[in-house]
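Bug report (template v2)

What were you trying to do?
Predict the complex of my protein with glutamic acid.

What happened?
Run completed; filing so the output is reviewed.

Input:
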Amino acid sequence: MPGYRGRFAPTPSGPLHFGSLVTALASYLDARQAKGTWLVRIEDVDPPRCPPGTDTAILRQLEAFGLHWDEEVRYQSTRHEAYQAALEQLAKHGLAYPCSCSRKEWREYAVYPGWCRNGVRHPDRPLAWRLRSDLGERPIVWYDRLFERQCIDPAELGDVVLKRKDGLWAYQLAVVVDDGDQHINQIVRGTDLLDNTPWQCQLQRALSLPQPRYLHLPLIAADNGQKLSKQNLAPALPTDDASVRRLLHEALIILDQTPAPFLKRAPVTEQLTAAIAAWNSDRLQPRMYRALPRSVSLES
Ligand code: GLU
């Protein structure tokens, strides 16, 4: 049996915030306790959304928190040929199709109604590529390590875009191709991606890739009840030593790992060694959101 292979796959649209630290930490601890391999993949498929230098800032933040990765960091911006080959394979089997429709045209529908499935409506327009979510196994049933049995019909979610009209690759295809190519067999990430999983399982099956195990983590909600995210301008993680020690301890508490209080100001390596030994994903509570405790000040 191949060993544990996990990854943290940030989109470099902004530096990491406390919510992304919690995700990175859980995926790191899960891999390290299993004596597995832990990779970092920079998901920079959308260059206009990724300010230059953000990838390096993210890597420096991970290092400051002691989250050292194995193997070379992969950049999705270098993977065009692999994504193109996968798209061609899907198209050959009738599982992907070109689409000329604009969002405006189908705005009255909850999901894209599939008008171009049997032929492009306006071949003279720029074309996106979409997945035939109505073909293949349905519904998709899988077991999340935290949220347990999931059963979702991808057709209800619609024919997701795999390649955009502007030629950029979409997350759904890129993530599946790279997880497959990097032999990732354990995925730990936020619950905001739970309902993306059926498309990804469908793509894995269509591309004859094995399905990894999934653990979706509760998202962190800020005081105003909104999820901490770059869009909400959650502050970037500080990297000074005192803040790093404090926030690492808080991240372990958020993950229901009850770290010993005396470790609160301990150096990062000491906190991580204890956390790897004590890591128990069964302690996580299956909730979609977790409130940010008042004790967590995100300022340095
Ligand atoms: N790149 C995605 C994000 O930053 C995460 C992808 C994944 O873990 O599947 O939200």
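What did the reviewer find?
The radius of gyration is 20 Å. The chain has eight helices and twelve strands.
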